[in-house]
Automatic annotation (TrEMBL):
The gene is rplR. This is Large ribosomal subunit protein uL18. Keywords: Ribonucleoprotein, Ribosomal protein, RNA-binding, rRNA-binding. This is one of the proteins that bind and probably mediate the attachment of the 5S RNA into the large ribosomal subunit, where it forms part of the central protuberance. One of its GO terms (cellular component) is cytosolic large ribosomal subunit. It comes from the Bacteria. Part of the 50S ribosomal subunit; part of the 5S rRNA/L5/L18/L25 subcomplex. Contacts the 5S and 23S rRNAs. The keyword Ligase does not apply. It comes from Dokdonia sinensis. GO terms for biological process: translation. GO terms for molecular function: 5S rRNA binding; structural constituent of ribosome. InterPro entries: Ribosomal_L18, Ribosomal_uL18_bac-type, Ribosomal_uL18_bac/plant/anim. The keyword rRNA-binding applies. Belongs to the universal ribosomal protein uL18 family.
Amino acid sequence: MALSKSQKRNRIHLRIRKNISGTAQRPRLCVFRSNKEIYAQIVDDLNGKTITAASSRDKDLAKTEGNKVETAKLVGKAVAEKAIKAGVEAVVFDRGGYLYHGRVKQLAEGAREGGLKF
């Protein structure tokens, strides 16, 4: 029996997570994308703590006009701004099993423009 789309994504995500992990010095920037929204978290996997997070559902970003790709870039900038306030400058990017294309790519570019290094 063939795997569903979400099962394929989960397999890819697990394969990615075997190789990358967030530390206190270089936490993991993980992305979750739904059909409507996009979410980003910066996570320290060694301590099991979420350092900061941003999403398209945040009050300041939910009011913005534009399509989902433009919103993803704003979310990337917002998570980078929050991370720099928390003292994080370098991260490991976890695309969450999604293709590095479209909204995921724009979120990464927005985070780079915001000052994160990866």
